Amino acid sequence: MIVATVMYPPSARFDVDYYMNKHMPLVRARCEGGGLVGTQVLKGEAGPDGAAPPYQVVTLLSFASLAEFQSTMQQHGAELLGDVPNFTDSQPAIQVNTALG
């Protein structure tokens, strides 16, 4: 299993309502037939020292395999990334990880 981690740095605008009610359903609709097995959205909070988080929102997208993730992103990635300006003015960092446990 792989986990694609999508990390949004702090920005002046992040519409959580749009993200949760429009963007994430779009992600699920496009990716569920392509190996997506689960999603989790995390909101960044202050660290132990009170410092602001490096990312305001982190989303975890679990896929059955790297090949399925790559295929799905080739097919739908432009549409999904094209929706980003509808909810934020920041650009996400995306990291693909292998789940170890």
Structure description:
There is one protein chain. The model has no long low-confidence stretch (mean pLDDT 95). The protein starts with a strand and ends with a strand. The protein contains 2 helices and 4 strands. It has helices spanning 16-31, 66-82, and strands at residues 2-8, 36-43, 57-63, 93-98. Helices cover 33% and strands 28% of the residues. The chain has a 4-stranded antiparallel sheet. It has one domain: Alpha-Beta Plaits. By secondary structure, the chain is of the alpha+beta class.
Main features:
101 residues; alpha+beta; Alpha-Beta Plaits; 4-stranded antiparallel β-sheet; 2 helices
Number of helices: 2
Measured between the Cα atoms of the first and last residue, the distance is 10 Å
- SSE ordering: EHEEHE
Task: Tell me the strand order in the biggest sheet.
Answer: 2-3-1-4
Q: Percent helix among the residues?
A: 25-40%
Shape, principal axes of CA atoms: globular
CATH topology: Alpha-Beta Plaits
How many strands appear in the DSSP assignment? 4
Which band does the percent of strand residues land in?
25-35%
Low-confidence stretches: none
Helix/strand-derived category reads: alpha+beta
Largest sheet data:
4 strands, antiparallel
